[in-house]
Amino acid sequence: MTIDAANPIEQQKKQPIRRDAALEVTRLMPRPLLATLTVLLCALVLIPIVYIFLASLNTDVGVASGEFWPSSFSLDSYTKIWDSVGLAKAIGNSLIVSGATAVVSAIMAIGTAYVLVRFEFRGRLTVLRGLLGLQSVPGTLMLLPVFVLFSSAGTYLGVTVIGTLWGLFIAYLTFALPFSTWVMVTYLRGLPRELEEAARIDGASNLGILFRIIIPLSWPGIIVSAIFAFLLGWNDVLFASVFTRPDTHTAAVALQVFASAVEGGAIPVYSQLMAASLVCAVPVVVLYFMFQKYLVGGLTAGSVK
Amino acid sequence: MASSVTEPRPSDSSPAAGAAAEPGETTPPGKRRKGLSEKNRPLWLLIPGGLLMTIVILVPLAMGIWMSLIDLDQYTLRQWVSAEFIGIQNYIEAALSSELLRSIWLSVSFAVISTVVTIPLGVAAAVVTQNAYRGRAVVRSIFLIPYVLPSFVVASVWRTMLQPDGIVNVTLTNMGMDGGLWLNGPNAYWTLVWVEIWAAWPFIYLLALSGLQAVDHEVHEASALDGALWWNKLRYVIFPYLKGPVSLAFLLATLNHINNFTLPYVLFGAPAPSDVNVLPILVYVTSFQSFRFGLSAAMAVVSLILIAIPLFIYLRAVRLDVHEGGKK
Q1: Which of B14, B40, B205, B255 sits in a 20 to 30 Å window from A147, CA-based?
Q2: Considering only alpha carbons, which residue of chain A is nearest residue B22?
Q3: What is the pLDDT of residues B235-272, one digit of tens each?
Q4: Which residues from chain A sit within 8 angstroms of residue B292, using beta carbons?
Q5: Å between B295 CA and nearest CA of chain A
Q6: A63 lies in a domain?
Q7: Per DSSP, what are the bridge partners of residue B85?
Q8: d(Cα A1, Cα B318) in Å, to the nearest integer?
Q9: For the packed helices B100-128 and A31-57, what is the interaxial angle rounded to 10 degrees?
């Protein structure tokens, strides 16, 4: 019923203690049906995935004419993508903005989440509800006023914000901060109080407890909240399409340029688009699978995308 | 990790340090916890995060609502402070002479259809990975891939596959069917639904999986002893456990579908074909292509009100707190 992000106690429960003997009892379907469903679901996922690989090795004409298996393989696309729309620069921009968002939101989240989880105060539940609710506020609703505020920063203060990475960074914080804080809240709820209470009896101050007990024990939670904040930035198209210029394009926007770029006038550069898609997706997929144990809980903690 | 926890103890545990840090030492043990959480609260720790959130969230949110009440377009944008206040005229225009109502219908129907289809898929995936077998970890990872992939990648790939002469139509022709246009015209709506389903079913799978893990082993044993048929066991024993998580997933997934901007934007571009002119796209085009910022803000506020209904139900249902006394 409840949704817990990377709750350490939940994780322990998942380890099956009784193995083989329990298998027959807990199986929910006849074996053939199980196998059929598994194969169908895997095929549903894997066919497009395999297609990306093959198409990135194909020629543009081959992709455009609907080949699944390329008639000729080449790695050309992987060397071309870096220059044709400045993907390298764009990935660099994405890394800078998303990385900064991740670090700032994760740091901000720790203190806020600690107080929200461990102390009572008036308005606490409202804040918790707000953190969760903000994740479902439409991005377009936040985009408009942020855009107007940024453009008036140019008019009234003489500071150019639109088109810079700073503007994008601030815009991402609007979603990353509440989300990271919520992820930290769900993580800290799973930490036992006993250590803190022991430290308190030993005379540790609140700040001492935060730095010597909470933070060392919550590394997994901190990493998860940072990764999610990072992915919010990495995956975003909405804000980046409005707030960036060609030299501050992020990877997600650069990919859209591929789609409209045509080489020689006839066919879009499909195979470069697929190669660039893979290049943008691989870091994310690797990140997920490296931290899968912790991230899966966080995925269900709120809307990530 | 363990050493850094125990390290400070020897010095801190001296009586003097303890007394200095905790003046209320004389309170009876029973009241101790309450006294602690009421007297010695480091509420100032909320200030940095709270201040930043106020600046980057509450201020724009309030301004978004204000913007929907003023006459703001590309001419008045630079001097928005002095833009004319026109009350609810933006809302009236949005309702009467814009695509808003149609977009609401498109968004809601698209979101509900997508969610309804993903639920059986997700639950089935959770059921088939419930038991450990060799290779299950791989299957579980595969199931997560669509959800893990960035939306813009998913949309780019499907757009390439669904080109008029792309792989999908070639395959359909080989199977003796007529493909037709997927990225334009009436089929575009179903393309959007299909790609959203492809990308979103693992979310249901994850929540259903957490529901399945709540089923005690004794329950499995009991239904095995009763000799329940697998279908009856699923239907009457297991599915009731999933009702909670799946209802929550239903709400959350529907909200996510309604708010999804990336998928329609990358699949169809902006302005989108009229059959996939969903709310986020409409708001985006109204402000950044027609430059009617006030009108667009009114539309955005309407979409907030629209999602507020499922959001409210969700916030009531989800557990916000861990209190020994239960829900608070």
Answers
A1: B255
A2: A203
A3: 888 888 888 888 888 988 999 999 999 999 999 987 88
A4: none
A5: 11
A6: no
A7: B70
A8: 8
A9: 120
Residue A106 structure tokens: 């994760």
pTM of the shown model: 0.83
Exposure of A111 in the CB half-sphere (CA atoms within 13 A) = 18
Instruction: Report the alpha-carbon distance of residue B315 to residue B308 in Å, rounded.
Output: 10
> In this model, does residue A76 exceed pLDDT 70?
yes
Q: Is B70 on the interface with A (CB under 8 A)?
A: no
Question: What is the pLDDT at residue B122?
Answer: 93
**Is B51 near chain A, with CB under 8 Å?**
no
**Which sign does the torsion angle of CA B149, B153, B157, B163 carry?**
positive
Q: What is the pLDDT of residues B57-93, one digit of tens each?
A: 889 999 999 999 998 887 777 777 777 888 888 999 9
- Residue among A51, A144, A152 whose CB faces B297 most closely: A144
Mean pLDDT computed over every residue of chain B = 81
| Tens digits of residue pLDDT in A232-261 | 999 999 999 999 988 889 999 988 887 776
Alpha-carbon distance A51 to A47, whole Å? 6
The answer to the question of residue A195 being in a domain is yes
Q: Which of B210, B255, B304 is facing A303, going by the closest CB pair?
A: B255
Digit-coded pLDDT (tens) for A167-209: 999 999 988 999 899 889 888 888 888 888 888 888 888 888 8
Cα angle vertex A206, ends A202, A212, to 5°?
A: 70
Q: Phi, psi (5° rounding) for residue A263?
A: -100, 125
Q: Do B141 and A37 touch (CB under 8 A)?
A: no
**B160 to chain A: which residues are within 8 Å by CB?**
55, 63, 270, 273-274
Contact criterion met (CB < 8 Å) for A136 and B146: no
Which domains are seen in chain B, by residue range? Answer: 97-317 (1.10.3720.10)
Answer positive or negative: Cα dihedral of A131, A133, A136, A139: negative
In a domain, A243, yes or no: yes
CATH at residue A160: 1.10.3720.10
Residue with tokens 């059986």: B120
How many domains, chain A?
A: 1
Of A52, A66, A152, the CB nearest to B170: A66
User: Do B5 and A195 count as a contact with CB atoms less than 8 A apart?
Assistant: yes
B64 closest CB neighbour out of A30, A141, A178:
A141
- Whether A88 is in a domain gets the answer yes
